Amino acid sequence: MFINTMPRYEILSPDAIAVLDRGWRRIVSEIGVQFAKPEAVELFAKAGQKVDGEVVYLDPDFVMEQVAKAPREFDMQARNPANNVHIGGDHMVFSAVYGSPFIREGDVRRDATLQDFRNLAALSQSFPELDSAGGVICEPNDAPLDSRHLDMIYALQTVTDKIYMGNVVSGPNAADTIAMTEILFGSRESIERTPAVVSLINCNSPLRWDDRMLDAQFEYNAAAQPVILTPFLLMGAMSPVTIPAALVQQLAEALSGIALAQLIRPGCPVIFGSFLSNIDMQSGSPSFGTPESALGLLCTGQLARHYGLPFRTGGGLNSAQVPDAQAAYESLMTMLPTFLAGANFVMHSAGWLEGGLVSCYEKFIIDIEILRQLKVEFTPLEITEESLAFGAHEEVGHGGHFLGAAHTMERFRECFYRPILSSTANFERWLRLGGKDTAARAADIWKSRLDSFTPPPLDDAIRADLDDYVTRRRRELGD
After folding, report:
1. Which helix (H) or strand (E) holds 56?
2. Class for the domain spanning 2-9+67-377
3. Which pTM was predicted?
4. Where are the domains of the chain?
């Protein structure tokens, strides 16, 4: 995994942070937050918080007491220990696209299938730039709705040996995820000791945690598995149109969810989540890769550090319909501040297209190229006397060139970044190679990767236990 030791790009003054801090405190105490699950409301009431139906009016100091119980950093185990990750500090974990119902493959846009899910999991496994395939890499519409979560978790566990994300559609789906994770890692005790699955719990913004998400959160937190508590904010629709107002709402929602996690299980690891962008005020459509989103992202990182929490934000977000220049520059507009902010968990790092409606094979490869470049760009220079290459000047002298110098010959294979996707061929050579644009070259790469892919080995007994569990649960669910 990547460790980002470059300085953070912080744009909020101490006075600005103080204003934002007062803002979320007013929201949780004067407006309150709705929790659409009686057990959640009961936990807050027992902790001395004022409740009115499903709305909880929170004492801000109580919220901060709960937030302080969450670890600043924690480890997660993968079934291949070489792929274990650390969440927090300077560490950055990158995960693939999440939640798309559609697939784009070349010129074809269609419903996603279970085979697409397996393909995207295989691509995630094959690229070391990604630490996780994620969770719902796409929504397999050809699998039964009631049991497709079993197919997805099974694929993540068998096609990859990296960490994965759990299902959050319902409490029972979350319980299935935990049970299958226990099988993969040997016991409940093993995953409670070191978490093995992380899950996305979205707030139904503004200021409402719905029952299905809360049901899943209760399951994961009770098992000591981390959740990413994420306000879903599109400014102008789910939050006011100003960035400061959105940041205050984000703090109110995320911190209230984190407080609940600590009531469920004190000390349970959590991730401060952020999904903050805006709508197009002319059409009402979501916009991604915008300057406002980038500014919100940078502020989020600074605020998460202020409150001592690992955080999720950023990714390769864009609104483009095809993997073109817009898709690339909007994704970079989001991914660059992701690195500048030092995000700890980055969803949608590869494959996101069309505002998240589409998981795109070609865009997956384009994003891997962006990710590879940024990891090099954010690796600090090592400056030593040797790196100054004084001897090369002695050899070449005045007016010469360094192409054949000993210093160059010793280092030319690894001295510069080598792209997997970009073309530096002259025009004639490019034509001889087929005259392919970026998307066409990306298609060649993903197809080649899948053709040569071999799933990582898995113990036969564990695979059999997983098969038995999936078969039994599918029968119980009526599928």
Report:
1. strand 55-57
2. alpha beta
3. 0.97
4. 2-9+67-377
